[in-house]
């Protein structure tokens, strides 16, 4: 069953406000386990982890910034 536009917006907000900070802490702890890598290796790890976290949520975030496709059409400013 596909999520409605409103449900996707709410879940996207939960992912950004709760999931992303948790993922950041996990990523920092993961990099801390490695014996002080060079700055380029560390940068590559952070970039890779930054891309990997969004892959499962790609479908959730797609189209969130656009107007609700299920909303009734707006007739304009109504002067």
Automatic annotation (TrEMBL):
The chain crosses the membrane at residues 12-33, 39-57. Keywords: Membrane, Transmembrane, Transmembrane helix. Pfam families: DUF2842 (PF11003). This is DUF2842 domain-containing protein. It comes from Shimia litoralis.
């Amino acid at each position: 069953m596909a999520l409605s536009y409103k449900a996707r917006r709410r879940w996207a907000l939960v992912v950004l406000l709760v999931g992303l900070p948790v993922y950041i802490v996990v990523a920092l702890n993961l990099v801390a386990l490695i014996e002080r890598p060079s700055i380029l290796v560390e940068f590559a790890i952070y970039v890779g982890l930054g891309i990997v976290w969004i892959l499962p949520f790609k479908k959730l975030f797609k189209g969130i910034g656009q107007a609700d496709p299920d909303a009734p059409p707006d007739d304009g400013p109504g002067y």
